[in-house]
């Protein structure tokens, strides 16, 4: 069975096998000590094997220039979207990206993060660390430099550092070439043997412009990991390596949805694709495409079961609306013959927070207050903008969510200085993140 998506019409055709095989591996993981590695390979290939074709010009390419209209690409785009865009697999479904690809008026073609966000270009994308973190079933991505034993428990340096010792699920880490430079992480997805001898290693990663899938002969693999001070790591205790950062504890990543075959709406799509979350009072742009020229009589927007608005479109084109009431919405078209189109689904949400006035003390607890509508706040993530780029999570309890406040423990941040504070909430349509910066003093 093949395991890839090919997008180019009503249905993004997923060759059969990924979802069912992943389900079987998940069941097997309860009894097999090696099943999670096999599962990691399957999950990596959801993102590295997907095929998609731009329907318009203007989709920026991290390698420079633009993806070409009408050209088929394999693997999701490379882009470090941070809090400005959306990370495929963690903030949005893969099918949300695929729907946006099919809408020539989507954010993929109308937004460009180049020059606005470091190491970014497309509004939706992944980078090396989000690719491997997704495959390794993390709830939130680890930075590439945080995959190894310097930052995590349950991971060791492979000995010998050789193709002959490599196994699927192993991690290749490349440290920065200079202080403050970028690091890189890759995933071993297959080991080919000739008898007892390893003859080749397959390595996959996220690399501009999309993903890479390289089969390295054993000698080339050895040369690869022996250069640039690379290290081959192996997770030996999956639970310890994750800690609380487990995908199974939250709504995303959602491997079932990402590996299922989505039906892409040919009549109506949103500027952010479909199956996606918006902030309250953020413009929602409905593109009435009517690709099969059936004729559209009405655009109907509903919040739950209640009709919010019925709009008579003036032919094909974009209709823009603002929604101030949080909730789950649908939009569909009534066609000229009275039939109903497929519905688009989206959520309208609220997410805001405040940090203490002045400068919180590192050695004392401090409080973050927040409001959330139609979102479950899952964590506060605090990140140092300087090497070694420490990341520290405060995972919320139900009591925290009810009270609208969470306490950052004393000493969680090891050093004083400026930190980025991310508040992350999720619902069935994705994740939204708000960011502030705060100065921590001793």
Offer a few descriptive terms:
442 residues, alpha+beta, Immunoglobulin-like, 3 domains, seven-stranded mixed β-sheet, six-stranded antiparallel β-sheet, 9 helices, 26 strands, 16% helix, disordered N terminus
Count of distinct structural domains:
3
pLDDT < 50 stretches: 1-31
What percent of residues adopt helix (DSSP H or I)?
10-25%
How far apart are the termini? 58 Å
The largest sheet is: 7 strands, mixed
The fraction of residues in strands falls at: 25-35%
How does the helix and strand content classify structurally?
alpha+beta
Q: What's the overall average pLDDT, rounded?
A: 92
User: How many DSSP H or I helices?
Assistant: 9
Find the count of extended strands (DSSP E, 2+ residues): 26
Shape: globular
Can you give a write-up of this model?
- Helix 1 (18-28) runs antiparallel to helix 2 (35-48).
- The protein is globular.
- The protein starts with a strand and ends with a strand.
- The protein is of the alpha+beta class.
- Strands 14, 16, 17, 19, 20, 21 and 24 form a seven-stranded mixed beta sheet that branches. Strands 7-12-8-9-10-11 form a six-stranded antiparallel beta sheet, sandwiched between helices.
- The chain has helices spanning 18-28, 35-48, 94-101, 107-110, 128-135, 218-226, 238-242, 255-259, 398-403; strands at 5-6, 13-14, 51-52, 73-74, 86-87, 124-125, 155-157, 171-174, 184-194, 197-207, 210-217, 231-235, 268-270, 276-279, 284-288, 296-303, 306-311, 317-321, 327-335, 344-354, 366-373, 376-383, 391-395, 405-408, 417-427, 430-440.
- The protein folds into three domains: 5-258, no CATH class; 265-349, Sandwich (Immunoglobulin-like), CATH 2.60.40; 355-440, Immunoglobulin-like.
- 16% of the residues lie in helices and 34% in strands.
């Amino acid at each position: 069975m093949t395991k890839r998506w090919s997008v180019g019409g009503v249905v993004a055709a997923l060759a059969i096998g990924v979802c069912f095989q992943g389900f079987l591996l998940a069941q097997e993981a309860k009894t097999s000590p090696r099943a999670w590695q096999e599962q990691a390979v399957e999950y990596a290939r959801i993102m590295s094997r997907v095929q998609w074709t731009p329907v318009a010009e203007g989709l920026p390419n991290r390698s420079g220039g633009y993806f070409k209209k009408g050209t088929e690409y394999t693997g999701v785009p490379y882009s470090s979207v941070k809090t400005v865009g959306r990370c495929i697999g963690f903030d949005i479904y893969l099918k949300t990206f695929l729907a946006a690809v099919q809408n020539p008026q989507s954010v993929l073609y109308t937004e460009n993060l180049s020059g606005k966000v470091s190491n970014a270009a497309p509004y939706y994308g992944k980078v090396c660390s989000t690719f491997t973190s997704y495959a390794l079933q993390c709830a939130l991505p680890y930075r590439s430099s945080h995959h190894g034993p310097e930052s995590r428990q349950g991971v060791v340096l492979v000995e010998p550092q050789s193709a002959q010792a490599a196994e699927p699920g192993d991690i290749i880490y490349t440290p920065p070439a200079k202080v403050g430079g970028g690091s890189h992480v890759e995933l071993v997805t297959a080991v080919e043997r000739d008898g007892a001898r390893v003859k080749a290693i397959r390595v996959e990663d996220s690399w501009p412009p999309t993903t890479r899938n390289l089969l390295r002969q054993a000698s080339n693999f050895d040369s690869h990991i022996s250069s640039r001070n690379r290290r081959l790591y192996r997770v030996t205790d999956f639970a310890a390596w994750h800690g609380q950062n487990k995908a199974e504890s939250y709504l995303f990543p959602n491997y079932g949805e990402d590996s299922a075959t989505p039906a892409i709406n040919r009549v109506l799509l949103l500027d952010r694709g479909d199956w996606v979350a918006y902030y309250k009072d953020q413009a929602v742009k409905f593109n009435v495409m009517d690709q099969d020229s059936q004729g559209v009589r009405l655009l109907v927007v509903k919040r739950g079961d209640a009709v919010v608005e019925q709009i008579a479109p003036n032919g094909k084109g974009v209709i823009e609306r603002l929604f101030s009431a949080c909730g789950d919405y649908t939009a569909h078209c009534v066609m000229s013959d009275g039939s109903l189109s497929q519905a688009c689904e989206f959520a309208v949400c609220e997410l805001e927070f405040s940090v203490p006035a002045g400068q919180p003390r590192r050695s004392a607890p401090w409080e973050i207050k927040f409001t959330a509508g139609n979102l479950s706040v899952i964590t506060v993530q605090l990140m140092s903008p300087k090497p070694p780029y420490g990341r520290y999570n405060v995972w919320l309890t139900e009591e925290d969510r009810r009270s609208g406040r969470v306490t950052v423990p004393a000493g969680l941040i090891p050093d004083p200085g400026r930190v980025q504070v991310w508040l992350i909430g999720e619902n069935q349509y994705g994740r939204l993140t708000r960011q502030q910066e705060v100065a921590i003093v001793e």
